[in-house]
């Protein structure tokens, strides 16, 4: 049988792997791709188990009694499913206008599908109502990078550069669990004498191997970064020449950091002054140095400003644009990078163009063959869209693709209520997720090994996803469904379901934009093991490293932006005296729709566990393995306790891969990025009653 080299369906590493169809199953082997270099994590090694799983959706499903979501779902033909969807769209738009119909996408969609979905909403539906689950992942770091550096590419250098850095600071990042194959670069660096600093309220597997572990109170990372910059200025460690030649706005930031003297920052964060001083000394004097942030720093109601504070520190130390040095953010979802570049976000058009920019509208409309005035203005962000479902002016007919927001969105009981308020709900997925179980119509979709397309990994490397086997007979790709529905809505001439043709159009639409793919082709990707954007023409080699010669800002300089600490949207009090923070486990991924169905992963980690310090557990009579109830102002969840002295005594950690953790989380939004405050909410806890689950 023919072997096909493709890529893992999970995280933004997009590890290379080879699939060989055999009877009765598919053989999966790691590939020597530049990112994973022959390595895979447990999730990647077991990814083929998804392809023939007994829970696989194989036909469309509709409610036995139309309009009654209490009635069971039954199998249906595509014609019947389409008829119900198109009727609901037309009825809603006739009664409530174009914006009453919308789509919610996913960071796992290929570039082609993300691009086509954004086009479908704006051209076929003529609606402004689109956003995606990447708003819950990368939006704060992206906003900070755009306003400071003029461009958002998670890592502005290849992942391999991490191995060459002598000091690496990881802020709110736990790659040992989230993307294990990436640890080879950190391991190589340490073997060559590099020193790593991990900033996390937990002593994670990543922190266990680090030179230093700083454990701040969740929600105080901005103060920590400003405190480090204060020390760097006082000690004369800032790079005055770099600041003068390549940046602007430092004077205001210098003034702001006067308020963050070490003793005050220690009181605010809980990080000892000596650790603050040593951490910034290493960054400043033992280079080349990198600062890498991830969701622990960014998923806050001030996440943009927090990412900005770390960017300010990197710029002040002169780290950016130098070999094996700089600032980056670690993308989480498989196509979290490409998914936000080409039109899934409420405010963006392909190529990372702004939807409210007349020149951008004219360019993309020209590629699409429509009048620019036909394009809607920006719509609501992801949680704002959810919060308005079924209300006056909100979306009443919603199509969700590749996203399980019942588990992944904050304040999930409210999310369920809002989904139930819609007049009509469609969900496309490969399994019957918790969100799909609420739908009027469920559409089965082809999965990773059954489709063609491109993905953009955490480095900005555009890669090929290849079809290794066909989808089941009644299963269609999302591109086909988008094209067929557009045809039924009278806009079919604008769409195609041929992936390479979609990518060729994407190249034209992105040309001249920030995320310029014009010079990238399927052939080049194949020949070069991926091409780094921006790549403006076919003679361009692709941009492996950004900022060596300048910044894509109006002035050509990087911008410092003054940011000040403010308390989280919710702080502990007498009723809710502790802090909950959420995150990942090694064996599971995102909402668990896929990984919770893989037997080997469930054997390794069959249930979520609340990580609690022994001192805190002792105060509440909780032993390791007991069931504990966590309560916030929004709801309650019962989890089994795991006692660990590696977490702060005032903090509880819960993984978000199962229903439960997001019953508690706070949907307070960052004013710039509209990121919810996943990482901090106030909770109470107690030992659960016997029989609780």
TrEMBL record:
Keywords in UniProt for this one? 4Fe-4S, Iron, Iron-sulfur, Metal-binding
Hydrolase among keywords:
no
Gene3D superfamilies of this UniProt entry? 2.40.40.20, 3.40.50.740, ADC-like domains, Dimethylsulfoxide Reductase, domain 2
Q: What is this protein called?
A: Molybdopterin oxidoreductase family protein
Domain called 4Fe-4S Mo/W bis-MGD-type: residue spans: 1-53
| One Pfam entry name | Molybdopterin
Q: Where does the source fall among the domains of life?
A: Bacteria
């Amino acid at each position: 049988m023919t072997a096909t080299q493709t890529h893992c369906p999970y995280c933004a590493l997009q590890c290379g792997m080879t699939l060989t169809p055999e009877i009765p199953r598919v053989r999966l082997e790691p590939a020597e791709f530049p990112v994973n270099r022959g390595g895979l994590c447990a999730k990647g090694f077991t990814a083929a188990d998804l392809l023939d799983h007994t829970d696989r959706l194989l036909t469309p499903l509709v409610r036995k009694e139309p309009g009654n979501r209490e009635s069971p779902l039954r199998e249906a033909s595509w014609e019947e499913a389409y008829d119900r969807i198109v009727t609901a769209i037309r009825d809603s738009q006739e009664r409530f206008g174009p914006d009453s119909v919308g789509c919610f996408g996913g960071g796992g969609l290929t570039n082609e599908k993300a691009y086509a979905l954004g086009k479908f909403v704006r051209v076929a539906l003529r609606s402004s109502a689109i956003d995606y689950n990447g708003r819950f992942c990368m939006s704060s770091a992206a906003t900070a990078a755009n306003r400071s550096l003029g461009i958002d590419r998670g890592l502005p250098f290849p992942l391999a550069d991490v191995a060459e850095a002598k000091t690496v600071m990881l802020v709110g990042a736990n790659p040992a669990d989230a993307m294990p194959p990436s640890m080879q670069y950190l391991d190589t660096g340490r073997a060559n004498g590099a020193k790593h600093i991990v900033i996390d309220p937990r002593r994670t597997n990543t922190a266990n191997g680090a030179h230093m572990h700083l454990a701040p109170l969740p929600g105080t990372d901005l103060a920590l970064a400003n405190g480090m910059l204060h020390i760097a200025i006082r000690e004369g460690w800032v790079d005055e020449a770099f600041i003068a030649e390549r940046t602007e706005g430092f004077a205001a930031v210098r003034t702001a950091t006067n308020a963050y003297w070490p003793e005050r920052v220690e009181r605010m964060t809980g990080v000892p002054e000596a650790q603050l001083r040593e951490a910034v000394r290493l960054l400043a004097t033992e280079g080349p140095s990198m600062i890498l942030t991830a969701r622990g720093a960014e998923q806050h109601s001030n996440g943009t400003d927090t990412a900005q504070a770390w960017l300010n520190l990197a710029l002040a130390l002169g780290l950016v644009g130098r070999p094996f040095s700089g600032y980056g953010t670690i993308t989480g979802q498989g196509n979290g990078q490409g998914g936000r570049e080409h039109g899934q976000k409420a405010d963006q058009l392909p190529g990372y163009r702004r939807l409210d920019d007349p020149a951008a509208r004219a360019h993309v409309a020209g590629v699409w063959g429509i009048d620019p005035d036909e394009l809607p203005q920006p719509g609501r962000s992801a949680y704002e869209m959810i919060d308005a479902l079924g209300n006056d002016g909100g979306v009443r007919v919603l199509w969700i693709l590749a996203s399980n927001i019942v588990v992944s969105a904050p304040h999930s009981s409210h999310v369920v209520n809002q989904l139930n308020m819609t007049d009509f709900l469609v969900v496309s997925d490969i399994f019957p997720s918790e969100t799909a179980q609420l739908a009027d119509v469920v559409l089965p979709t082809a999965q990773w090994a059954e489709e063609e397309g491109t993905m953009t990994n955490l480095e900005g490397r555009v890669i090929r996803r290849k079809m290794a086997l066909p989808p089941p007979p009644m299963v269609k790709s999302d591109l086909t469904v988008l094209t067929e529905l557009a045809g039924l809505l009278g806009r079919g001439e604008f769409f195609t379901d041929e992936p390479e043709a979609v990518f060729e159009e994407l190249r034209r639409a992105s040309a001249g934009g920030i995320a310029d793919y014009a010079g990238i082709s399927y052939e080049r990707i194949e020949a070069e093991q991926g091409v780094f954007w921006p790549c403006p023409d076919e003679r361009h080699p692709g941009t492996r490293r950004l900022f060596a010669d300048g910044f894509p800002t109006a002035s050509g300089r990087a911008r410092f932006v003054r940011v000040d600490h403010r308390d989280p949207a919710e702080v502990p009090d007498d009723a809710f005296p502790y802090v909950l923070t959420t995150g990942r486990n090694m064996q599971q991924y995102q909402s668990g729709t896929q990984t919770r169905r893989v037997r080997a992963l469930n054997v390794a980690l069959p249930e979520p566990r609340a990580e609690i310090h022994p001192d805190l557990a002792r105060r509440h009579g909780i032993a390791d393995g007991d069931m504990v109830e966590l309560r916030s102002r929004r709801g309650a969840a019962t989890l089994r306790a795991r006692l660990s002295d590696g977490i702060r005594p005032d903090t509880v950690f819960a993984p978000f891969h199962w229903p439960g953790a997001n019953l508690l989380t706070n949907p307070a939004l960052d004013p710039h990025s509209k990121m919810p405050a996943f990482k901090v909410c106030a909770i109470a806890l107690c030992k659960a009653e016997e029989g609780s689950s």
